[in-house]
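User: Hi! I'm working on a homework problem where we have to compare a predicted structure to a textbook description. Could you give me the structure for the chain below?
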Amino acid sequence: MNILGSESIGGVQAASTDTDVPSGPRAAALQVAQHLEAHVFQWTNERELQHGIGDALTPRFDVQAEVVLSRHDRPDFVVTVPPYRVAIEVKVAGARTAILRQLSRYAAHAGVDALVLAAGLRTLLPGIPTEIHGKPVLVAHTRAPLR
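Assistant: Happy to help. Predicted C-alpha cells:
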C-alpha cells in the first residue's frame, strides 16, 4: 500500500528513505510500530486496546502510560527506544481531523521525537502524514482476531 509518498514495511507506513537501513527517530518509531503489528489484540473498546498494547510493549520497551506533556496533551504511551521517545496514540474511532490535531500537538513537544498512531480500524490510517512538525509519524493497524 502506498499512502502520501510512504512505503509499507510489514503493513506499517514509513516514509521512503535514501538508504536501506532507517536510522534515528524514524527507526525507533518503526521498531515500535512493527512490534505492535506483530500482535493480535482482543478488544471491544479503546480502553481494552490500550491495555493490550501496554501488555505487548512492556516486555520489550521502556513504556510509560498517559505521560503528561502539558495540561492538554497526554499520549496513551511514550516508549523510549534510546535515545528517542516515541509517543503512541491509540484510536478505534474518531474524525481524522481531530486525530491530526492531537498528533500535531504531541509533535510540537520537545520531549517527543516520533509518533505512532495505533489504530484499531484501517479506515483511520489513510491520509495520516509521514511527518508533522519535522517529526516522523508512522501508523500501525492493531488488528483484532477474525470473528
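For your comparison, note the following. Strands lie at 6-9, 12-15, 62-65, 77-81, 84-91, 114-119, 131-132, 135-141. Confidence is low (pLDDT under 50) at residues 1-21. Good luck with the assignment!
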